[in-house]
Amino acid sequence: MVSRISLLLALGISVAGSGCVQNPALPTAPPPQPKPKIQPQPVITNAAPKTKRPPKAVTYTAWAELRERDAEEKGVDPSRKMDFYDEARQAYQKALKTDAKYLPAYSGLARVYMKMNHYDRALEVYRQATEKFPKEFTLWFDMGMCQCRIRQWDQAATSFKKALEIDPENRQVTQTLGFCLARAGHIEESLAMLQRVMTPAQAHYQIARMLHHVQRDDLCRDELRQALQLDPELAPARTLLVSLDGPPPGAGNVSPPPANTAASQPQAQIRFEE
């Protein structure tokens, strides 16, 4: 009996042992790897330092033009106006120091000198510019206008002739040259020039106007009479003659010419300083 019980106990333990199965171990993540260290770039100590480029001539010129516009704003104090012009002058000069062949800087510098009433300096700038750019029409024309401002009529005529060599069909320069020649006393040459752009009667009248401006009323009367012989209906000529001599006997009041007549307002008329 005891043996049978011992056998049953042994069988039970064996069966119980065969039913106990252990679970396998779960996989684990690999340990994190350390990040690679970034090596700093070596500092090059013998490299040349970067230098700031100076402004170009076009930059200086743009600044100068801005100062000019500031000077010409309405309500600017006269002393401040001259300060603006002087700043423009300096900027144009820096532009020419940067690029001695930059044409807009020459034109701008001469223009500012004229606005500051430094006509001798303006003419020197034009002289330098025309040496570098002898075929530049605008330089010769502007120099002629500058010479007219200081009544250098013969020199101005030479400048206008240079401009006409470049553009022979330019009506404005042709007429301006005719006016200039009349003021210089070169009547025949002036008449030939003006008749290129207006009628003979109007040419005589315009010469008379120029002569009146330079107090040559004796010659002015002759030109007015010639104008009226060619065109008796030329009212501006008759009005100017009456203002010089008074109305003829029996003549009524002479009405002033209309403001928009061709003779009183010729195309592209240039008004010089009195």
pLDDT averaged over residues: 83
Q: Number of helix segments?
A: 12
Taking the alpha carbons of the first and last residues, their distance comes to 159 Å
Number of strands: 0
Count of discrete domains? 2
The CATH class of the largest domain is Mainly Alpha
What's the short version?
The chain has helices spanning 2-18, 57-71, 78-98, 103-115, 119-132, 137-149, 153-166, 171-183, 187-194, 200-213, 217-230, 235-245. The protein has 274 residues and is mainly alpha-helical.
Task: Write a structural description.
- The chain is mostly helical and 274 residues long.
- The chain folds into two domains: 55-133, Tetratricopeptide repeat domain (Serine Threonine Protein Phosphatase 5, Tetratricopeptide repeat); 157-274, Serine Threonine Protein Phosphatase 5, Tetratricopeptide repeat.
- Helices cover 61% and strands 0% of the residues.
- The protein has twelve helices and no strands.
- It has helices at 2-18, 57-71, 78-98, 103-115, 119-132, 137-149, 153-166, 171-183, 187-194, 200-213, 217-230, 235-245.
- Helix 8 crosses helix 10 (200-213).
- The protein starts with a helix and ends in a 29-residue tail after the last helix.
- Residues 256-270 have low confidence and may be disordered.
Top keywords for this entry?
274 residues, mainly alpha, Serine Threonine Protein Phosphatase 5, Tetratricopeptide repeat, 2 domains, 12 helices
